[in-house]
Design brief:
- This protein has helices at residues 6-42, 50-86, 89-95, 100-141, 242-247, 260-269, 275-302, 309-338, 344-368; strands at residues 155-162, 165-178, 181-192, 198-210, 213-223, 229-237.
- By secondary structure, the protein is an alpha+beta fold.
- It folds into 2 domains: 6-142 and 273-368, no CATH class; 155-249, no CATH class.
- Strands 1-2-3-4-5-6 form a 6-stranded antiparallel β-sheet.
- Helix 2 runs parallel beside helix 7 (275-302).
Length: 369
């Protein structure tokens, strides 16, 4: 059965329609719960508006889309295949000499296209929304809905220096000299008060972090209400060390699929490990095939010539249980990869490869019956 054939378009139309119905239904439920959680968090806060709560809830929704997408794919495929089996359309198609994979071919292509659209189009939006959610969380915690919005590009480090006061450090480029020394270029150190307003800013062309001291070169000091000072060098004491910097890297979820390669190169060139970002990149790269695997799980449980009440319920429950087991196992392997217990490529590709090989073998067996 060809992808653009009349029958292929008919099956794909039902499949894609069911996919978006399930997707937006689940998204709506998640949004309602996020709105309730946002209202709970701002209750009693006169400095936070309902519009802020709405933005906070919207920014949280995209964080859960990637988690629920495989289950949406499995649920939509189960609904589609159940309808085709119940109406005997699947029996008629098989009687016409179409093999199991001949029937699934257009749906596999549609699933891959949906997966590619997810990482190419939706993922950049989700990354922006994740970043925006982090900013809103900071504004909520700082009790100032109009706090300064800082970009997450490059290296940003946040440090609490006193009660309510924080320090933000940004560097355009950096390089690890040894285990205790880090050199940086185009560095800015910004001090903020308890209202998240800038009090002092240090801008330097070069900085060397060593023994919890930033040795700044060619420094400009900007203070509120005072003229700009120019210094040849300046020593800025801090509690930040190499381990703190490693922990302060940008969250991989806040970086879009298209920007991840440059980010990985940035960190590796700086001498740090980019394992988390590699895992994120490979996980996104393989995600369309994971969606195909989840769709094929739905096919295994719902593509039958006859469906009876008790058996239908058993198939639905079995499909849901298997789907959760697959997702849980993939997350365990993902954690092993992030922590360096196994190679990142093995952690990213193995779960999906196992799912595809298992479902393919089961569908081939069903095709021979």
């Amino acid at each position: 059965m060809k992808f653009f054939s009349i029958l292929g378009r008919y099956v794909n139309r039902q499949f894609i329609l069911n996919f978006f119905v399930v997707f937006f239904a689940i998204l709506g439920v998640i949004f309602i719960f996020d709105c309730i959680e946002s209202l709970r968090r701002i209750s009693g806060r006169e400095d936070v508006s309902l519009w802020f709560a709405f933005q906070y809830a919207i920014s949280r929704v995209t964080k859960t889309v990637e988690i629920v997408l495989p289950f949406v794919m499995m649920a939509s495929s189960m609904i589609t295949f159940w309808k085709l089996s119940k109406s005997n359309e699947f029996v008629v198609i098989r009687s016409a000499g179409v093999s199991m994979f001949g029937f699934l071919y257009p749906i596999i292509i549609a699933t891959l296209l949906l997966g590619v659209a997810n990482i190419a189009l939706f993922n950049p939006l989700a990354a922006k929304m994740f970043e925006w959610h982090e900013v809103l969380s900071y504004r909520l915690a700082s009790h100032n809905p109009n706090a300064v919005l800082f970009s997450s590009k490059g290296l940003w480090i946040r440090e609490a220096i006193s009660e309510g006061n924080v320090l933000l450090i940004q560097a355009k480029s950096m390089h690890q000299e040894d285990d205790k020394t880090l050199s940086m270029r185009e560095v800015s150190i910004t001090e903020l008060d308890d209202k998240a307003k800038i009090t002092t800013r240090y801008e330097a062309s070069f900085a060397l972090l060593e023994n919890n001291v930033f040795n700044l070169k060619d420094v400009k000091v900007l203070e509120n209400g005072k003229p700009v000072k120019s210094l040849t060098e300046y020593k800025y004491k801090t509690t930040i060390d190499m381990q703190r910097i490693k922990e302060s890297f940008i969250e991989p979820n806040a970086i879009s699929f298209w920007q991840l390669p440059d980010t990985i190169a940035f960190y590796e060139h700086s001498g740090f490990s980019a394992t988390r970002h590699w895992m994120r990149y490979l996980n996104l790269l393989i995600s369309p095939f994971l969606l195909v695997g989840m769709m094929m799980i739905g096919a295994i449980f719902m593509l039958q010539n006859t469906l009876r009440g008790s058996k239908l319920l058993l198939r639905v429950v079995s499909g849901i249980v298997i789907g959760f087991m697959v997702y849980f196992s993939s997350q365990v392997v993902y954690t092993f990869g992030v922590n360096g217990y196994i190679p990142v490529w093995l952690a990213a590709f193995t779960p999906t490869a196992i799912i595809l090989l298992t479902t393919t073998s089961l569908l081939i067996s069903a095709d021979e019956v």
